[in-house]
Amino acid sequence: MGKVLGDVLGLAAGVAVSPLPVIALIIVLATPRGRVNGLVFTAGWLVGLSGLGAVMLVIGGQGSAGEHGQPADWVGALKLALGVALVLFAVRMWRHRPTDVTQARLPRWMAAIDGFPAVKIFLLALLLSAGNLKNAPLTIAAAASISASGLPAGQQIGALALFVVVASLGLLIPLGVYLVMRERAKGTLANWKEWAARHNIAVMAVLFFVFGLKLLGDGVGVLSS
Length: 225
What we know:
Blueprint: H1 2-16, H2 19-29, H3 34-60, H4 73-95, H5 118-130, H6 135-148, H7 153-167, H8 169-181, H9 185-224
Helix pairs in contact: 1-6, 1-7, 2-3, 2-8, 2-9, 3-5, 3-6, 3-7, 3-8, 4-6, 4-9, 6-7
């Protein structure tokens, strides 16, 4: 159980450090119904991560554990493929990062968030969690590690729940600041938003590269064992 949690928590930290979802949440919190919309956004995020992880657990099942308790070869191949994809994304993003961070621009779709109804806010969060180019591979890799552990179903669900909570800290912290401080939180959240907007691409590129290498190492280790 300890080894699984070590793998899972590292991947969860990678998901938690996601600038774009944080920026999106801060924009949502600034809407007229900020409290409700913020809770809806966070719920969509949690459902996205939980759903993707649960699907992976079902696909893997107990068959993910190979001989002598080692993960099955397909788990290693999956991590290897995800690692390659993340490294390639990292290189591409780094090459296209703005040389002057003051010129960094947010995606155009973010300008429309102010007018989103609750359903669209929920679906946006769902997409940013389960459909994100960094978060989805890391969530799949974490669920694959859990599935390959051979742990009882209850412990696997518990490990996935822990992953989701840790992976959501990047959103839960600003949401908590807003709920506690309300109007006083606007300045703090605005500063976080500005920093995240300026450094989003560089941060994502570094995270892609670091966790891509980790998954590559994990995949090679499984396939060579």
